Prior knowledge:
Strand order of the largest sheet: 1-2-3-4
Bound molecules: zinc ion
Number of strands: 10
Strand content: 5-15%
Order of helices and strands: EEHEEHHHHHHHEHEEHEHEEH
Structural class: alpha/beta
Distance between the termini: 35 Å
Radius of gyration: 29 Å
Low-confidence stretches: none
Helix content: 55-70%
Amino acid sequence: MDILGSQGRVRWSFSIARIAGVDLRVHASFFLLLAWVGYGDYVGGGMGAMVEGMIFILLLFTCVVLHEFGHALAARAFGIHTPDITLLPIGGVARLERMPEKPLQELAVALAGPAVNVVIALGLFAVIGKFSGLGGLFSADGMETGVLGSLLAVNVMLVLFNLIPAFPMDGGRVLRALLAIRIKRARATEIAAGVGQAVAVIFAIIGIGFGQPILLLIAVFVFFGAQQEAAFAGEKEAAEETSVAQIMRTTASVLHLKMTVIEAARTAMGEALPAYPLVDGNLRLLGMVSPQELASALEQSPFAPVESLAETRVDRLPSDISVARARAVAEASPQALFPVVNSSGQLVGIVLREDLRAGVKPG
Ligand SMILES: [Zn+2]
């Protein structure tokens, strides 16, 4: 079981290795699982059974890690980095820095994980067939096929389970990607998340009904993961469809070219802003003045023209660009305030960094 995540690093986990630039992490509770399985095997069959059980769990999770690397390497092919892969008792999480936006790329990344298990299963199938005959695989007493046979079964299960369309699990991402070929991504996410939550409820019922705590955990993970992803996709689409003009502030203190420092300071005192836009008689943006510059000039040369204080290399936002694009501009800029200008370069409003950070409501 795995969930491809694009949210933050999993807490209570620590790094055990670094492979191909990806940090391999293990969640603390994973050791609880090991201890639990180990104890069960020890009680049931003594030391030998315990060692065998441990080896099997480690082999199983090696297959899970390889599955996650399938996702990570497919993502890398599209230029997307995977900072870490974390092992949890319920499976692995490959944290991609982002999901590919193109449906076919997302499809490839989602399928790459289960594809690894298909390859492993085929490999095991061949090995078992060669050494003990495939008959051993289907007979209950095939001792020599024991561990390999179980591992083969587990890999087949990993493929089938992951392809259940329980977004944000792999199958759900496949569903979202297939839908997104035809309809808008936010809507596709909404549908996939709805299906995912329905499946999560079924998981929960089975988990409770048949006493499967792991399945119940997965249900919780899927349910809230789907909700979060749908909200994230909705906000992202809203940010792409909302223009800067729709969220900008239009009543801000603005400095005029002809003002002296003392006049400008008087205007600035009316409203605390991280910077004040400076305009000419036609409202064309000339630059910005920082409150610190203004304060120090007030002591030294109060009657100098304020224009001399203006920083003219200013990142400005055209009023018709989307909030999503404005966020990208803000990301690369040190400014806390962005003047918004129309096509003639006239100031029409301002946007604070925090205005861009605030979520945009899907319309
Ligand atoms: Zn996966």
